[in-house]
Design brief:
This protein is of the alpha/beta class and about 325 residues long. The protein is built from 8 helices and 7 strands. The chain has one domain. A 7-stranded mixed sheet has the order 1-2-7-6-3-4-5, sandwiched between helices. α2 packs parallel to α7.
Amino acid sequence: MNMEKFLQSVMIAACFSWAVTCGASTTNDPPTSEPWPDDPPIMEDFVSEDHDDAILAMLRTPLVEYGAALESYLGEASANNRASINDQDLVRIYQQIRRATFAQLIYTFTRDNVQQTRVYLAVSGRPFRDLTQNSPHLHLPELRPELLDDPDGPYYRLVSPAATFASAGVPANSDITPSPVSPKDPTANHNDAEIRALQTLVREIASGEVVANGHLEVYVSRGMCPSCARAMARFAARYNVDTHVTSIRGTGEPREQTPIWRDFRAMREEMIAYLQHVFVPPAERGTTTAGYDAAEVLSGEDEDHPPRNPCHDEM
C-alpha cells in the first residue's frame, strides 16, 4: 500500500463523487431527512446504502488523511525503538480509529463572480500525543509552544491546496461553539469533528480567506449529536449558508448495522491493519505488555459504544 499514491487517488475520487452526490441520491430508498426542532432548518439525510460509493469516498478521504498523519507521527515516535513495539503500544490509536467520527465539509462560495470551493476534513478525539503517552516503547516528540493549540497539525500533508484538516478554535465572541455535555464537563464536545470543521471555516470567513453566503455539503460517519446540530444551525443562520448534511445510518448493534455502516467499518479496520503492518513487527502482532488482554486490545470498543458522549471519543 503506497500511502501517497492512495491519498492522491482518494482526493480525485472524492471530487468526482461530490459531483455525483450533488446530482442524485446514492441509495435504493430515499434517504430519511430529519430537521432539528427549535433551530434554523438544517436537514440531515441518513443513508443506509451507497451502491456507487459516492458517500464512502467522502468519508474515506478524512480517514486516509488521518491515517497518513498517524503514520508520520508514529514514525517519529518509534524512530529509536521500532523493534520493540507491540499492539499494546498502539491500543488507543486502534480504538480511536474504530470510535472516531470522520467528516468532510465542502464549502462552495462566490467571490468576484468566480465560484470557489474549500474542503475541510475533520476527525473527533484526542491528539496523537494523548493516545501514546502511556505507550512504553514510544517516545513522545517534542511539542513546541506554537503548536499547543494544534499539536497534530504538522503531521498532515494534504495533497490538495484547496483542503485543510480542521482544528478547534474560533474568533472572540463567536457563538459557533458546542453545547456543554454537563455543567461538570463544559468543554467535552470541543473534540467533535463537526465542531472542529465549523470553527475552522468560521476562522477562514473572519480572515477573508472565504466569504459567507455560500453552500455547505457535510458528510459525516454518524448522525450528529444535538450539540453539533445546534452549532451547525447557528452557523447556517449566522453566515447565510445553505447547509445539507449526509450521515451514515447504523450502529454496532447487529440488528442496526446497515450496508454502508459495515463498509465504512471495514475501511477503519483496513487502516488499523496497515498501521499494524508498518509499525508492529510480525513476532509482536497479537501480543501485549504483561497484564493486558491481547484479544481486548485488538478488538477494542467501536465507535458506537463510547463510554459517555455519542459524538466523539472519550477514552
